[in-house]
């Protein structure tokens, strides 16, 4: 069964195959199911990009979309995540896309449900489809990962994007640097080297900024001097290498992680990342569902 829970479950070959499929979808080609296939999107945390790009991806593939909102479901009556997913499986969902505030929410489901689970972000844990769309954006720009220097800036400790990206970019041959406040260093994220913000920006082919994850902090953080101390100012943008690009998973805190005027500058790929999110998610859905359809055809022919 083709769950997608973390990036480290994917081999390099599988990652390249997903990126190739995403490119095919960008060109208007690629697999679509011939049978009726149902997918349910379960979002227990707020989302704009991931939720709607999954929905667009599903509709482009011709899937039947079962949208779920926790506040209008039996979650309000105490139903567990397992019972919700098992219910959807029972009534015909062929896969579930889940965003949840709990790290590793999927551990309660693995081996107990027989439909693919796609992780759309688990707490501070992982965000594999964000990672795949980031890889697609970098590959479109540079055609490779080997030898690139990619700096990840900010709230590393609470960022599932940093966790997913640092591991896979290192594995694919990039040199990962981290930069940000010492209190937000992640002792468990051992893939990158910490350097000062000016050094990181001057050395990087990709400057990847992160949102401050206030909702995951024990105490409210003061972001007043953050831009000057750690963010991408206009002066720092001038120090970037020729051809270097700016990325951010978004939503962006304007004039905190990055000066608002730079969000749509020539170097910025922030909206390109969102566009690529649809194609990367189409490829992930293909990986999850193609085998199911083949199994259905085999069963129909028995
Ligand atoms: N980048 C990202 O995951 O955005 P959303 O929270 O809006 O889905």
TrEMBL record:
Carbamoyl phosphate binds at residues 49-50, 99, 127, 130, 250-251. It catalyses: carbamoyl phosphate + L-aspartate = N-carbamoyl-L-aspartate + phosphate + H(+). Residues 2-140 form the Aspartate/ornithine carbamoyltransferase carbamoyl-P binding domain. Residues 146-286 form the Aspartate/ornithine carbamoyltransferase Asp/Orn-binding domain. The keyword Transferase applies. GO terms for biological process: 'de novo' pyrimidine nucleobase biosynthetic process; 'de novo' UMP biosynthetic process; amino acid metabolic process. Keywords: Pyrimidine biosynthesis, Transferase. It is an enzyme of class 2 (transferase). GO terms for molecular function: amino acid binding; aspartate carbamoyltransferase activity. GO terms for cellular component: cytosol. Its EC number is 2.1.3.2. Signal peptide: none annotated. L-aspartate binds at residues 77, 160, 211. Pathway: Pyrimidine metabolism; UMP biosynthesis via de novo pathway; (S)-dihydroorotate from bicarbonate: step 2/3. Catalyzes the condensation of carbamoyl phosphate and aspartate to form carbamoyl aspartate and inorganic phosphate, the committed step in the de novo pyrimidine nucleotide biosynthesis pathway. Belongs to the aspartate/ornithine carbamoyltransferase superfamily. ATCase family. Heterododecamer (2C3:3R2) of six catalytic PyrB chains organized as two trimers (C3), and six regulatory PyrI chains organized as three dimers (R2). HAMAP family: Asp_carb_tr. This is Aspartate carbamoyltransferase. The gene is pyrB.
């Amino acid at each position: 069964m083709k769950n997608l829970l973390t990036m480290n479950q994917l081999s390099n070959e599988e990652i390249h195959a997903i990126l190739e499929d995403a490119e095919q979808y960008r060109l208007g080609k690629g697999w679509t199911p011939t049978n009726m296939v149902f997918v349910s999107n379960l979002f227990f945390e707020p989302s704009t990009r991931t939720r709607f790009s999954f929905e667009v991806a599903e509709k482009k593939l011709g899937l039947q979309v079962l949208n779920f909102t926790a506040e209008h479901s039996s979650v309000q009556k105490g139903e567990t995540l397992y019972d919700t997913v098992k219910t959807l499986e029972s009534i015909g969902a062929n896969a579930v896309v889940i965003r949840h505030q709990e790290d590793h929410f999927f551990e309660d489901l693995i081996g107990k449900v027989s439909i693919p689970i796609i992780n759309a972000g688990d707490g501070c844990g992982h965000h594999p489809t964000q990672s795949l769309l980031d890889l697609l954006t970098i590959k479109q720009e540079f055609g490779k990962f080997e030898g690139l220097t990619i700096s990840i800036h900010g709230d590393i400790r609470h960022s599932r994007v940093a966790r997913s990206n640092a591991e896979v970019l290192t594995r694919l041959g990039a040199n990962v640097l981290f930069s940000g406040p010492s209190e937000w260093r992640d002792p468990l994220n051992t893939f990158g080297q910490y350097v000062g913000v000016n050094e990181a920006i001057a050395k990087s082919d990709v400057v990847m900024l992160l949102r401050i994850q206030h909702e995951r902090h024990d105490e409210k953080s003061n972001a007043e001097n953050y831009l000057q101390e750690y963010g991408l100012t206009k002066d720092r943008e001038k120090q970037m290498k020729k051809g270097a690009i700016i990325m951010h998973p978004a939503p962006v805190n304007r004039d905190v992680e990055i000066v608002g005027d730079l969000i749509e500058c020539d170097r910025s790929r922030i909206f390109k990342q969102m566009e690529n999110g649809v194609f990367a998610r189409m490829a992930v859905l293909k990986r999850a569902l193609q085998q199911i359809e083949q199994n259905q055809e085999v069963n129909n022919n028995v």
